[in-house]
Amino acid sequence: MNLKTTPNLVVIGGGTGTHVVVSGLATYPVNLTAIVSVSDSGGSTGRLRDEFGFPPVGDLRQALAALAQDNQQPWIRDLLLYRFTKGQGLKGHNLGNLILTALQDLTGTTAKAVAITSQIFRLRGSIYPATTRTVDLVIEYQDGSFVIGEHHLNPHQLGGKKIRRIHLSPQARLFPQAKTAIQKAHLIIIGPGDLYASLMSNLIVTGMKAVLRQTQAKLLYVVNLMTVFTQTHGYSAADHVRVIESAIGRRLDYILINQEAIPAKILSAYRQQQEFPVTDDLPHEARIIRAPLITQRLVKAEPGDTVSRSFLRHNSRRLANQIISLCH
Question: Average pLDDT of 142-158?
Fold first, then answer.
């Protein structure tokens, strides 16, 4: 890819993975769009969804916060990510979630709520929900059982069970502006993020597969650092790639995977949860990019957060450098 114009980059995902990618890319002169999953049903997001009936905003809020630059808008990022640790009714809630929910209530739409939040804080870039419909994630296992709600992927009781497939209930169509962004993109970045909860929940939205097959953009997949006990126990890198390529109906142009050793203390913390590094069993092909990509410190649990989250992350600067290099 040898672009003479400002590249149009689209990030598809959700949660902390998309936050890391967007925060790194936001420091570059690119046209940046994130398409974010809206099937979350746990934590602060789940409580607000249950009370107001709007699509969940937690992953959208994380993506918006990532657009706030550390050197110019640190307080905006802190505000959007601020979580209340006390106060009856407020404890556990995130301020960014409350702002977005209030705007959903005022405007009646999630897309407008996100756009207005971006205008208020003067953020550069676009954040779109994958769909504007309120949906649940239905997880079907290979033993024939199923559960409804993404929050079932958080506790470890169901860990280790093999997922056969997931679908959305009810079915939902791709948000039109998200479709347009994909059509105009030069490079589309899928991941990192929970394979089923964050990535596949986007890719199974009606219309997503068709537009990804038709777009002239190159597709990059960022392989996860660790397996997730409730989703990808025993999955190798090739297993992750197989699931993604099956969902998008085409071959990935690039696959980016970490080659840096993970510190022993971090591995020990994950081992207690029966989670392990994703084994690199990918072939030696030009499309496979191996690079040191990790942060060297554990991410501490956020006070008041009731959702289990990863404490090893990709390094946003290193990740962004690798992505930008594909645009030249």
Answer: 87
Token look-up 């169901």 returns 158
CA-to-CA dists, residue 2 to 40, 140, 190, 286, 287, angstroms: 37, 42, 21, 17, 16
Cα–Cα distance measured from residue 283 to residue 82, given in angstroms and rounded to the nearest whole number: 43
Cβ neighbours for 71, distance < 8 A, ≥ 6 positions apart: none
The pLDDT tens digits for 294-306 are 987 766 665 554 5
Structure tokens at 158: 């169901």
Q: Side chain identity at 56, as an amino acid letter?
A: P
Domain boundaries, the chain: 8-325
Q: Quote the Cα angle for 26-19-169, to 5°.
A: 130
Q: How much is the average pLDDT of 196-208?
A: 98
Phi, psi for residue 58 in degrees, rounded to 5: -55, -45
| pTM listed for this prediction | 0.94
9: three-class secondary structure by DSSP: strand
Identify the CATH assignment for 8-325 out of 3.40.50.10540, 3.40.50.10680, 3.90.550.10, 3.20.20.70.
Answer: 3.40.50.10680
**With contact defined as beta carbons under 8 Å apart, do 177 and 207 qualify?**
no
Q: Is the pLDDT of residue 71 over 70?
A: no
Share of the chain above pLDDT 90, in %: 79
One-letter identity of residue 212: L
Q: Checking DSSP bridges between strand 254-258 and strand 218-222, what pairing results, if any?
A: parallel
| Minimum mean pLDDT range among 27-36, 44-53, 204-213 | 44-53
Structure tokens at 240: 């992750």
Residue 305's pLDDT is 47
Integer Cα distance of 151 and 148 in angstroms:
9
- The DSSP symbol for 236 reads -
